[in-house]
Amino acid sequence: MQRRPRRNRRSAAIRNLVRETRLHPSQLILPLFIIDGSNIKIEISSMPGNFRMSLDNLLKEIEEAVELGIESIILFPGVEENLKDSIASYADAEDNFYLKAAVKIKQNFPNIHLISDVAMDPYSSDGHDGLVKNGQILNDETLPILGKMSVAQAKAGFDWLGPSDMMDGRIGYIRETLDLAGYSNTGILAYTAKYASAFYGPFRDALDSAPKAGDKKTYQMDPSNRYEAQIEAELDELEGADVLMVKPALHYLDVISDLKSISNLPIAAYHVSGECAMLTAACQNGWLEYEKAMPEALTSIHRAGADIILTYFAKDFAKFHKAGKV
Ligand code: PBG
Q1: 41 an active-site residue?
Q2: Marked catalytic residue, from 84, 216, 247, 260
Q3: Res. 149: pLDDT tops 90
């Protein structure tokens, strides 16, 4: 035999030398859920270890994450039903708790890289990401609402904005609006290929943000489509995105790999709530070993081409990293 690939697997030292990918906690973004009030910390039943928290508890959570080596956080608001309306007016309201929280987080942790969510759904009484009229989700008419939301978030101190509605022309419009308002240093994490996925279930339960009628198939992508993601990538890049994201992650590794090969922008992948819930449930049943299966899942996403991973396992991965287990 001329070739024996096993020679490169003979010892731990050799395996360490030839390892192609290494995931570091600084490449992870931890998603956190905030609700208004104080002294609240409610576990999300389908995502053990993840909570809806008021700001006081959230600050403690961030402190813990920072100590473990997490540097980036994406924050999602859970808004009370009576504050929602058809035009998402609470999104940039003066007393908006999400915006006030961002100010506090940046005061307490100036080095944290803080990322927002730009979409109507947390604030919309229709539960859709855009304006709804006669059952239609409007594209262009939603833009000014997202523009106002973006400027308010940039002003509050978010470092990257995450337009997540998968409608057309978002990146260009938000980029221009931010620049005109003097926020040219605020970045845009583009939800480039976000699929109409069944794996967002636990997230929507956590935030009560499921659509009241219909589904999101006229704006989020069809899970059957691979090449369409490249059209979205081209547009987001031209419109001024700083990072391109694929969502979900584990079920869309081909898409991650494609975008990595066609773009020189950093590629992010969102390991979503349902993907985490699957693994957690199997581990709780004793069917998988968490300490091995979880890092393998994250490594797969990185190996496929994601430079950045958003995952609810970020803290645990950082813990394992600190202990020298990964
Ligand atoms: C919507 C949004 C969703 C998620 C992040 N932002 C849900 C949706 O599109 O309905 C899902 C994240 C997850 O499942 O972890 N603004």
Answers
A1: no
A2: 247
A3: yes
CB count within 10 Å of CB 86 equals: 14
> Domain range spanning residue 245?
22-322
Domain-embedded: residue 97 = yes
**What local confidence, expressed as pLDDT, does residue 80 receive?**
96
Ligand 1: atom nearest CA of 121 is 16
Q: Ligand 1 centre from 216 Cα, in Å?
A: 11
Distance CA 173, CA 321 (A): 40
Distance in angstroms between the alpha carbons of the first and the last residue of the chain: 34
Residue 258 is classified by DSSP as H
The predicted structure's pLDDT at residue 206: 81
Q: Is residue 6 part of a domain?
A: no
Beta bridge partners of 311: 271
CA quadruple 313, 315, 316, 318: dihedral positive or negative?
positive
**What is the distance in A from the centroid of ligand 1 to the CA of 14?**
41
C-alpha 1 – ligand 1 centre gap (Å)? 51
| Number of domains the chain is built from | 1
Structure confidence at residue 207 (pLDDT): 80
In a domain, 17, yes or no: no
* pLDDT tens-digit map of 169-184: 999 999 999 999 999 9
Give the model confidence (pLDDT) of 16-66 as tens digits.
999 999 999 999 999 999 999 999 999 998 888 899 999 999 999 999 999
Q: Active site residue: 194, 216, 260, 315, which one?
A: 194
